[in-house]
Amino acid sequence: MKRLVALEGPLAAIAIALGAGAVLIGIAGENPLEIYALMATECFGTPYGIGQVLFKATPLIFTGLGVALAFRGGLFNIGAEGQLVVGGLAAGLAGAALTGQAPFVALPACLAAAAGAGALWGAIPGMLRARFGAHEVINTIMLNFVAFALVAWIGRYAFEPATVRTAEITAGAVLPRLDVWFPALAGSPANFALVLALLAAIVVGIFLDHTRLGYEIRAVGLNAAAAEFAGIGIGATRALTLALSGALAGLGGANFVLGYKHFFEQGFSAGAGFLGIAVALVGRNQPLGVVLAALFFGALSYSGLVIHGRVPKELVDMLQGLVLLIAIAVPAALARRRG
Amino acid sequence: MTRRFGSVVANDDVSLELEAGEIHALVGENGAGKSTLMRVLAGLVAPDAGRIERDGREVKVRGPADAIRLGIGMVHQHYMLVDPLSVAENVVLGREPAGTLGLFKRPAAERQVADMARRYGLPVDPKAPVRALSVGGQQRVEILKAFHRGARVLVLDEPTAVLTPHEVDELMRVLRELRERGVTIVLITHRLAEVRAVADRVTVMRAGRVVGNAAVSEVTDELLAEWMIGRPLETLPPPLESSTGDVLLEARELSALDDRRLPAVRKVSFQVRAGEIVGIAGVEGNGQHELVECLTGLRRTTGGEVRIGGLRAPRGVRARLRLGFAHVPGDRIRRGLIGEMTLAENVLLGRLHESGRGPWLRKRAIEAESRALLEASGIEPADPSLEAAALSGGNQQMLVVARELARGARVLVVAHPTRGLDLAAAATVRARLRRERNEGRAVLLVSSDLPELLALSDRLHVMYEGRLTLETQPSATDERTLGLYMTGHRMEIAQ
Amino acid sequence: MDVLLFVAATFRISVPYALAAVGASFSERGGVVNIALEGIMLNSALAYVLGAYASGNPAVGLGAALLAGLATAGLHAWITVGLRGEQITSGIGINLLSAGLTRYVLVSVFGSSSNSPRVVGFDPLVSFDTLPGLGSVLTSPLVLVGLVLIPAAQWLMFGSVFGLRLRSVGERPEAVAALGLPVVGYRVTGVLISGLFGGLAGAWLASEQHSFTDGMTNGRGYVAIAAMIVGRWSPFGAALACLVFGAAEALQIALQGSGFPSELIQVLPYVVTMLAVSGFLGRSFPPRALGTPFAPERSGQ
């Protein structure tokens, strides 16, 4: 019951943001209700639309889970964008290298590469925090930039000539499209990475609530002093938390690289790492909430394309930021009034 | 004047009168309400009822600015200084000598501070960064701050708590001189020696009320100690005869620093055997907190060692917990419980090292164990899925105590185990501690509750300023004597 | 590689960083983490273009940019100081919002989703031919303003009464409150100052480019924060760090044609920042109360 009550923040945020959006749509000369109706029907009313929404939501689920896990551990992971990128790159390079391997070899290997690269990218600020007390906010942000530079550098040698993408991955590493199971979704880029994402959400939920390590992470996040008193090593726990967080974000690259284009392309991430922060916050750092929030933000993303003829699609970008801000402001305002 | 914090009445119908040009000592144990009273005066906290009068007329103190304007200057126990700034900058902050465009006239400030320092006999270097000063020096800066704002009433909150004996003498001299200059001083302390040294009159508070008021020359130390510490004795059955076994917990010449890098534990040595309760009495702030942290493995020692079961204690909390060590922290909110977690999860907090089987939390087993624990301890409601923050303070303490005692450890270190508990709950906890002792555990009881210590301990120490100043047995002492040792009036440093 | 051109490029690249970093130092010295710089600069750049486009006068553009910077910073201040919301996520949220907002306005007003039409910029006082490269940069009015503002900021931070109080608020707000001074007021002022400086930086970017492009700040706001940390939260230090970072960026651009992997130079500022934050370049201590919301304790408030 308590979980439902905690929805007031995100729902209010979404409501207020949609209201603001309505005003803007009105200014642009269109009817807000009509526009919102159009968004809803295109996103959820047609199979192609649903497929697009699922496709856009998938990386957000991964990055959202990563950021949420970090938040539960009391840490700020602003580096999901970089972790996503190195994860995608690793997956793309592994996929291209494992030519001829069967799927049950190539696919796990590529996924492991993605997770491993992301984990490394998260472990670095994690260990800096554990060992030197360096706050992870700056370090994760810096590693975003390092990731971009790293991609550019590796790209010198790994990109196909005159492109910014890597070689095509082997057939064994491909994540099939969802229309294999759901023929209705034919034509949309939705792929099995979504299934992996949902699995990841379930795993993260079980991990946090039912394993000892998950418990320790939560304890450190809620009250590090008490956790220390109980014998939990807070430095090591924090480093591990950021590594796991990075691994999740890194897996997000699989959606594009293994499931859609079948190669790594510079710039594929398109802000999914930063949006993951919004997804985690709006989803209250709970796996189910993250999935729902990712679907919402994914739908917003796609609906921008849908309404583009009539209202600038950039309106949607604005709404995304607005939702995040209101999601912060509303609980803070309520807490102030109460306390 | 009455001030409540939630359900705790910090000041209950308290009245205090200050005469001009006197040094008035405000005495009492921790939590007696002295600091709250003074913070009301300084405008940091608003009273729920009552009023403040100055020169016979009522005045309103709505904020620190009002208090400053009325000439009230407070020197806090935890200094309110800005570390990276210099002495002069700290002193003049808020009333800076300023030039055109808001220029800060640093040389003028330094000159003003130097003049004041000379005038009041408080030697400081205006240019020195505050963080480089000794504690005594920082205190002088705080006092100068008050005078810079024209204070005529100076309130000092436990000023000698962190000073060396030499610095204490210095401060006493300064206070006497200030009195000559017509400054009215309120000295909050729990040390009777200081009261004797400088105060003209003394007011004693206990549990939020004023229990005594007299001229210092007309009252004895024994009476003061009794006012401070006396509490209605409750009856506990006399302890069973028990044979004591091996030394399970030992401290040898243990030394450690506090968070401010000052010596807090000075060469403390004691032993606790199986089947006995050893008590350490003392007013809080004399190093007990740091001592307990050394024993549990949370604080590095600067000398000496801790031995558990005859062997040198391993590093780290978890390792010691595995050795059969349990501890009830003095600060249950910060160290003992995680408010946002459920009761079951909090019970787990102390048992992590022993849930051996694999990575999984055996949730159902934990729930069942927690429920049993809650019911056995009489915690209401006995619902393991409640959030810990929803329990009353007393129940929270019961939970922590019950959790730790349930572990079947050989060595128990408990700090203030009955703090905040009502009489019935406190009696339950004490009975439980006695049972552990009878069953052969070694129990170290750190407390400032004298009746409790006298009733439970087989042997008793007093801790004062980081040292154990007395070793005795309950049959050989009484509350008054202990009170004198706890307030530093008498000392016998153990050989 | 022409040394003069390199120096000119360094200056040109460093200026927006330096302005933003100097401004950020005021916010953070007051205790408020301001990661919203990216959004502040972005909004201000667009505002400059709007103002300059509408009036044909760069001064109007500058005014609009400063207003936009103040408004954005004001939003951050309201959320973090007024509502006591979490400072880091507020910054990220404002950045996201600004990215979307600027895109939206760009499309709505100019009809293009990637760039605006060309607008007037601030012409350098000395023309390009007279003193090639360096001259045109050094005598650009905005650069001159920057060169004056940075020492002024240093003075404001360390030589004025305001600066003394602001720094105290960031270290020990309880101490300042106990003296009867308004902690909230100082914190908000610090944030608004960072908005002004950020506005100036955004105006510089847009004026230099003579247009607005989507996402033109390109992470400079985050780098400015990093420079501020490396510069130990002082305006001079921040500006100096920005100069070094700017040199690295200029070097990287110069190397782009040659075979040398310019990406290695590119990451230098970020790696240096990580080392600094982790304590390898000497302990750099942030203001002690940075990031913690200040709650006045009196009952009934």
Write the layout of secondary structure elements.
The complex is a heterotrimer of chains A (339), B (495) and C (301).
Chain A: H1 2-5, H2 8-27, H3 32-45, H4 47-72, H5 80-97, H6 103-132, H7 136-158, H8 193-210, H9 212-222, H10 224-229, H11 234-251, H12 253-257, H13 272-282, H14 287-306, H15 314-338
Chain B: E1 3-5, E2 8-11, E3 23-27, H1 34-41, E4 52-54, E5 57-59, H2 64-69, E6 72-75, H3 87-92, H4 106-120, H5 135-148, E7 153-157, H6 165-180, E8 184-189, H7 192-198, E9 201-206, E10 209-215, H8 221-229, E11 247-257, E12 263-273, E13 276-281, H9 288-296, E14 303-308, E15 311-312, H10 317-322, E16 325-328, H11 332-336, H12 343-349, H13 363-377, H14 393-405, E17 411-415, H15 423-438, E18 442-447, H16 450-456, E19 459-464, E20 467-472, H17 479-486
Parallel strand pairs in B: 3-8, 3-9, 6-7, 7-8, 13-18, 13-19, 16-17, 17-18
Antiparallel strand pairs in B: 1-2, 4-5, 9-10, 11-12, 11-14, 14-15, 19-20
Helix pairs in contact in B: 8-17, 12-13, 14-15
Chain C: H1 3-29, H2 37-55, H3 58-82, H4 87-110, H5 134-138, H6 141-158, H7 161-171, H8 173-178, H9 183-209, H10 220-230, H11 235-254, H12 262-266, H13 268-277
Helix pairs in contact in C: 1-6, 1-9, 1-10, 1-11, 2-3, 2-4, 2-9, 2-10, 3-4, 3-9, 6-7, 7-9, 10-11, 10-13
What is this structure, in a nutshell?
The complex is a heterotrimer of chains A (339), B (495) and C (301). The model of chain B has no long low-confidence stretch (mean pLDDT 82). With 495 residues, chain B is an alpha/beta fold.
Shape of chain A: globular
Q: What would the average pLDDT of chain B be, to the nearest integer?
A: 82
User: Uncertain regions of chain A: pLDDT < 50 for 5+ in a row?
Assistant: 1-5
State the oligomer.
Answer: heterotrimer
- Would you tell me the structural class of the helices and strands of chain B? alpha/beta
Strand order, largest beta sheet of chain B: 6-7-8-3-9-10
Q: Please name the two chains that share the biggest interface, counting residues whose Cβ lies under 8 Å from a Cβ on the partner chain.
A: A-C, 50 and 45 residues
**What's the helical proportion of residues of chain B?**
25-40%
In terms of structural class, how would the helical and strand content of chain A be classed? mainly alpha
Distance between the termini of chain B: 47 Å
Spatial gap, N to C terminus of chain A = 23 Å
Radius of gyration of chain B: 25 Å
Total beta-strand segments of chain B: 20
Q: What percentage of amino acids of chain B are in beta strands?
A: 15-25%
Low-confidence stretches of chain B: none
Counting DSSP H or I runs of 4 or more residues, the number of helices of chain A is 15
Domain count of chain A: the total is: 1
Write the H/E string of chain A, N to C: HHHHHHHHHHHHHHH
Q: How many extended strands of chain A?
A: 0
Overall mean confidence score, pLDDT of chain A: 88
